Amino acid sequence: MCGIVGYIGNRTAYPILVKGLQRLEYRGYDSAGIALLDDEIRVYKCKGKVRDLEQLTKGNNISGNIGIGHTRWATHGLPNDINAHPHKSMNGKFVVVHNGIIENYTHLKNTLKKRGYKFVSETDTEVLANLIESIYLENKLSAENAVRLALTKVIGAYGLVVLCVDEPDKIIGSRKGSPLVVGVGNGEYYLASDATPIVEYTDRMIYLNDEELVVLSAQGLRVTTLDDVQKNPTITHVDINIDNIDKGDFEHFMLKEIYEQPTSIYDTFRGRVDLNTHQINLGGINEVMPRLAKAKRIIIVACGTSYHAGLVGEYLFEEYARMSVEVEYASEFRYRNPIIEPDDVIIAISQSGETADTLAAIRMAKEKGALILGICNVAGSSIPRETHAGIYTHAGPEIGVASTKAFTAQVMALTMMAFVMARKRNKISAEKFEQMVGDLVKIPDAITEMLKEEKNIKKIAEEYKNATNAIYLGRGYLYPVALEGALKLKEISYIHAEGYPAAEMKHGPIALIDNNMPVFVLATKDKYYEKVVNNIQEVKARQGKVIAIVSKGDETIRKMADHVIEVPNVDESLMPLVAVVPLQIISYHIAVMRGCNVDQPRNLAKSVTVE
Ligand code: G6P
Q: Does the Cβ of 129 fall within 6 Å of ligand 1?
């Protein structure tokens, strides 16, 4: 989704902005632009990629020590040069970049039109620029106070950065609902929608809170509320390894992140699982443990891949901790007027920690008195800041839009939590607990072994690269993995894919099966094995093509299926962590073979900060 970067200091802003925008490319975008400020404001913007923007600026004046940049993911109006940010106000006094959605923009636009304002774009952001300017000119306010007053008239979400031509020594930023981070350098400041574009310059970050406004200038930094109450911002030291936001020797971030999984999973349990005693200490939730252990019900809220991790969590919590669990799409949950009791526990799962629907869902549940926990990857993001307690997954920055290592890290966090709860509630013996923890710590090795199958998987991808549809089947712990496999394929290869619980096939999807239909069947040796073998036969009887994910050494399915991919033998409750890997790899190769933009698939965004 849209990305913001800004710079003010002694250096030329342009290269910092361009590099920052490249770092933000992973969020997904359709156009890019920058504004540079010295004694005038120069705006360059275009549809397409940051490299198109660089072409556009070639030979033009790119001087200036102050500047802002933006990658746009279209919400209001087509992706084109005009709708790209930054947006200038009609009289050229202000330039604005904005993430989020201004919900009352039609009303504001009509009011401004009556006052003679003309609009060139279809965006809500241009409305903001003109609103700020009209207030500035009519009330003869400072730029800062004009922004402040304008924002009191706005309904919706914004992460906003503003330059004013009359006050060419400052950058003004504010947020509500959409994140904005200030990087504090030596006599210089950065602004961005997340820490990735600025972390190579400074590790000192200030995460603005909703309805706070920051003014950055050579004199320093000032954070206030929209009512102009001075705030003392906290500087957080972020620990992001710069290598993690480079592709290294890999062709794509997605492949790199698939290959990072043995390490990222290890990082999720490192420091939490004692490898000698096989005990687990989840420091982030220790304090709330008594309340958690007594909870009547756990409600997991999430979106996309994180929702699928939540489904695995449901099986884990029910089987081991014997707790009742519901897993909800955050977008449905928040508007359904759900019944939430004070002894319910909500677990929000989110890689980015910024997903608008998930954030809104926890705010609503918090108001109703529930205990709110988070399982998030991005430290300092909004969701962990608004939860009572939680677990960071420590998977490292995930840049590919299609989530891979974040998923396995989320499942690992849920697994640890389920085991801890199971023990706390006396639902499993100390011996069983130790045995499960012993199995859990072997998962990085199992994934390493799985990754060795890439060549074989690539050959299978070759056969199905021209498919138009695909079905994914799984049962029990592997049903969410089927959903995740189908999501991966559709996200990056644009092949229509559906995931189903294997037994549901006969209630509909079986009608789709013919000799062109690839059916991915997760059929490892678990308690559903025989039943899934029957499903494979049903598919074969209709001439479907079966790609079976099987336990090592399975000869039965090898005789029936068109292709088999063997996975190492691990306990069935840990199998999602391993069995998802071949599905990630096959989606990746099919997408590459189809010439798709794997890391930035069309229309998708990494961090969905609008509802
Ligand atoms: C977007 C991303 C997905 C992600 C989902 C939820 O759709 O493209 O990869 O699973 O948002 O994001 P979150 O950051 O909350 O996990």
A: no
How far is residue 248's CA from residue 118's CA, in Å, rounded to a whole number?
Answer: 48
Is any atom of ligand 1 closer than 6 Å to the C-beta of 304?
yes
pLDDT in tens, 474-531: 999 999 999 999 999 999 999 999 999 999 999 999 999 999 999 999 999 999 999 9
Q: Indicate the residue type of 436.
A: M
Beta-carbon neighbour count of residue 208 at 10 Å?
A: 21
Q: Whose structure tokens read 């602004």?
A: 191
Collapse the DSSP code of 278 into the 3-class scheme (helix H, G, I; strand E, B; otherwise coil) and give the result: coil
Asked if 244 and 419 count as a contact pair (C-beta separation under 8 A), the reply is: no
The structure tokens 């958690």 sit at: 292
> If phi over 0 gives left and psi between -120 and 50 gives alpha, with beta otherwise, what is residue 169?
alpha
Distance from Cα 137 to the centre of ligand 1, integer Å:
41
Cα dihedral: 22, 28, 30, 35 (round 10): -40
Both tokens assigned to 71: 């990658």
Instruction: Return the residue whose CA atom lies nearest to atom 5 of ligand 1.
Output: 304
Instruction: Please report the pLDDT score of residue 39 as a whole number.
Output: 82
Q: What is the pLDDT of residues 271-327, one digit of tens each?
A: 999 988 889 999 999 999 999 999 989 999 999 999 999 999 999 999 999 999 999
Strand ranges, E, within 250-310: 273-274, 279-280, 297-302
User: Model-level pTM?
Assistant: 0.85
Q: Does residue 352 have its Cβ closer than 6 Å to ligand 1?
A: yes
Q: Which residues contact 66 (CB under 8 A, 6 or more apart)?
A: 7, 8, 13, 36, 37, 38, 163, 168, 169, 170, 171
3-state helix, strand, coil split of the chain in percent (to 5) is 40, 25, 35
